[in-house]
Amino acid sequence: MLKMMKGVMIAVLMSVHCLVSFAVEGTVNPDLGSIKGWVMDADKQTLPGATITIEGMKVGGTSDVNGYYTLPNLKPGTYTIRISYVGYTPITQTVSVKKNGTVEQNFVLTEGAELSEVTVLGAFTDHRRAIQQQKNKMGVVNVVSADQVGKFPDSNIGDALKRINGVNVQYDQGEARFGQVRGTSADLTSVTVDGNRIPSAEGDTRNVQLDLIPADMVQTIELNKVVTSDMDGDAIGGEINLITKNTPNHQVVSAMVGTGYNWISGKPQWNLGFTYGNRFFDGKLGMMLAASYQYAPGGSDNTEFEYDVDEGEVVLTKGEVRQYYVTRQRQSYSAAFDYRFNINHKLTFKAIYNRRHDWENRYRITYKKLDEKTSKQSVVLQTKGGDDKDDRNRRLELQQTLDLSLGGEHQLGTLGVNWGASYSRATEDRPNERYFGIAIKDAHSEAFEDVNGEQPYSTKPIPAVNSDWEIDELTNSDEKIRENEWKLKLNFNLPLGEGARYGELRFGGKYVTKKKDRETHNFDYTDTYNEDWYSHLTTQIREGFMPGSQYPIGTPFVENAYLASIDFSQMKGEEILEDAAGNYDARENVTSAYLRYDIRLGNRSTLMAGLRMENTHVKYRGFNWIVDEKENESLVSTGRESNSYTNWLPSLLYKYDATDRLKLRASFTETLARPKYSHLIPNVSYNMADQEATIGNPHLKPTTSYNFDASVEYYFKSVGLASLGLFYKDLHNVIVEESWKGGAAEIPTADDYRISKPVNGYNASIFGVEVAYERDFGFITPVLRCLGFYGTYTYTHSNTRDYKFEHRMVEPGEDIKMQGTPAHTGNASLYFDKWGLNVRLSYNVASSFVDEMGTEAVLDRYYDSVNYLDLNASYTFGKKIKTTFFAEANNLLNQPLRYYQGDKNRTMQVEYYGVRFNCGVKINL
Predict the structure, then answer these.
(1) Quick check: helix, strand or coil at residue 200?
(2) Are 838 and 831 in contact, with CB atoms under 8 Å apart?
(3) Could you read off the pLDDT of 813-838 as tens digits, one per residue?
(4) Residue 21 sits in which domain range?
(5) Which has more confidence, 177 or 782?
(6) Among 343-352, 411-420, 812-821, which stretch is predicted with the lowest mean pLDDT?
(7) Are 841 and 829 in contact (CB under 8 A)?
(8) Does residue 49 fall inside a structural domain?
(9) 3-class DSSP state for residue 912?
(10) Which residue, of 110, 133, 158, is where some domain finishes?
(11) Is 491 part of any domain?
(12) Does residue 93 lie in a domain region?
């Protein structure tokens, strides 16, 4: 079937050449003109996604994200133009086109009577824009407006995404960090800013940290679940496109100040935001500036456990109790400029800079070697911190992203041209990350209760901390991660025939070159330090520790201030080569070209056919770390290894407008996902003494997927919709981290090692159903128009096949689950909106899924199910100056982050964050 689909694609694309030849006479006719302009409302707010049609002709278009539209290739004469938009009264207007000329015609819409009561209160303005854009998109797209984000208690982009059907998010310190789309892991989804993929600030993965970007810094979030040939192809799950604030058509000024509270830190939080935009020089120059600042002291209460299999039985090998204190500071700045020379020529410049400081102290109790003899068991108390340069005495993780883009849009006769050049940079710095651990021989295996249960704990007290304890660890590490990316793109669009009645041809190319480096140097000072640390202790594991009072509350640890005060420059340390073995530098070039053809088939149907080519060339260099049986170490460069491959990615999309409100869509696309950076390092590291090894795999193949989609959407007369979607993904060469006990060809004399290596483990398929419903209750009676419901549900089912593991034995009938695929995700929200008061109760749920494979099924790691309940309220008043007071309460159910191993009751990690409160005021001029 797939070969047949590709054959159909090639036949369709080959027919484009014949069609172009047939239509070329109308295309190059010098007498043809065009109509261009903007669609906006009475407040000069642009209306993206407006439907523009010419009466009596089977042609038309939609306005883009800036409300701009084009009707090309029109013979001289007078035309009647009709403009329609959700919630606005449609209008018609006559426009005269002159020979070989471009007419600028702007349209101003007024709100429809059915929404006038709500609109006066300013409730759904931005949300209507989002629905209209989604309604007119060719593929399956979910659009979230800034207004929607503001009506949910969401502080960052990841929190906002979890409201979209088919999306699940994974958390870090209580904030959404990575997004999973349609049952695929976060590795298989791309994140772009204004259509440009942004690099990752982390060293191991391509995933973009969504908690880096405050929600109030974007204008719209587009989730493209079906990608077209003019978009980057590395988006198996989909593309999360963050559209930053565009230049306005009038003056815009807004400000926000807020505060909050966190249970664990017991300290106030602060949120500040400011936006200014305007046009100058008779409207030719547009500018939009925005800034956001967040300061959030927080933390978490955590327990973690490790297990192994001994003679068929799962046994506890290690237990940990952790207390985190984390303060996050975000700064984000964006700027957008455009200069309109005339209706046919425009230059644009955009910049966004995000900076996140993450200061952390961690106090950890570790019960070690619980599966071994009591004489080998011990307890370690570890303090994690940093230096004292800023008086915080905490470990600093500084992540930064920068994206600069310059572009132009030009109309050269009937040929449209747009180009772009951009530079992106992502960095992570961890200077002076320090660990101080003290240990004592002490057996706890017999004292552990609830082993293999939800909360294992030791009933035996920890021995009093004094000089009998020994220093187990004293290290100081510096880490730098750098990723730089340059992009060039050139695109053309050519309408075919009069009024583009033979469709539109788009074609172009893109070149991306990136460089990523990771450099870590960690030094051990354990054997050279013997000061009076035992007189500098502090009690931790706080009262109210959320995993339970059965854990050792008030345990003494080395003070973070004492750790920060140690002057390592006066000491001689030994570098930990195992950490340096993870260093690498990578070079990657991606050259792509595409062809896309759109045509209207009558008044109701639209067809899009496309083909994209992406050539990827990579070069990697890493290090081999070897420890022999006598624990002698060596670290040797691997030299550079390269790989190159080409992917051809066809796409075919069909849309049928049964009515203006009822839309049907179907599509076939092929996409890919490139391996993680850390997986491609050509290194082999093994320790003969401990019999452990990690192996890189520079010859990994990218994961590819054939994607089938079908959906039906009905848009209500008021703001709202009901939709049903089906999707099927056929994935090949899925990459997993294989773990096994035994040997490997890369390791000499290995027979009983514990080894991990990334491999193309299997092929897989994912089937899913998506349902969404959003509507106020005004259809019951107008009195209930102020009440409404928003809900989504997604079911996904995955299976794996064609196993290609090098060592893991797959038993007959064994069901190896696709990683990152929750079967059920859902959202529900009840809201009240009237008299300027908006109150919303929101619920989010996701079922458990496999997160990481173990050496056998019983040791597979699962991300547990989650249930989140949030409440927020706001009150808005004023017309010229709109003022909004807001209050939010997040995580009312105190949902922890939890992993379990094999069995749902066997906890690997559980981390509690408590309830968070925020309140503040926003002012819009």
Answers:
(1) coil
(2) yes
(3) 777 888 888 999 998 999 898 888 98
(4) 1-28
(5) 782
(6) 812-821
(7) yes
(8) yes
(9) strand
(10) 110
(11) no
(12) yes
